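The authors assume throughout that readers already know how a fold can be written as discrete tokens. For illustration, here is how one protein appears when written out as sequence plus structure tokens.
>
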Amino acid sequence: MGIFDGIISGFSIALTPINLVFAFLGAVIGTAVGVLPGLGPAATIALLLPITYSISSPVTAVIMMAGIFYGAMYGGSTTSILLNLPGEAASVVTCYDGHQMALKGRAGPALGIAAIGSFIAGTVGVIGLTLFGPPIAEFALRFGPPEKFSLALLGLLMAVALSGDSVVKGLIIMVLGLLFGAVGIDPLSGKSRFDFGVTELQSGFDFVTLAVGVFGLGEIFYNLEQQGSAEIVTTKV
């Protein structure tokens, strides 16, 4: 069976009324739970997995979990826009422009743009993964340590270059990121690094936890500094 035959067969199964209903329910529930900062799609699916146990069809259960995943991905942008707290890792960038729009009384358009962007990105991403996923995976299997090191170095250099006007600030943030990423057990030697004897630190820091802490503490300190002089903006969401 070719790719297009599989796509047609998948649409014929996914577009049945019962599967559409469960996909909609999964998206609504995932959005409601994904709004909570720090959970993310994986934790949301883990929390709501028992709901799928009562579904008789495995295909319908998988479709509902897919709806929960996409709903949680979108729900993470809500707190990023309104509270400057990323709901999950992919919503960190939404804090930059989305929260600024909310402060200017444009929270409604920001949430609408996030919803439309999430739909378009999800659709294009699924189509691209279906068409180009197998050849890209085959090509990626040829990567060795030199290629992986080059990609990691390129990513770090791009992060510094895109950090803004202050290159020094970008370098400091990059070094801090590497230090936080080094906490935990070394995958090669199996030895603990920078855990200071704390068992909980052996699993390392989660990126979502760090992002929520950085953005959340920054917003709290800013509000404490502006206490008594904050400007209240009333707008329709």
Q: What stands out?
A: The chain has nine helices and two strands. The mean pLDDT is 80. The beta strands are 184-185, 192-193. The CA atoms of residues 23 and 63 lie 6 Å apart.
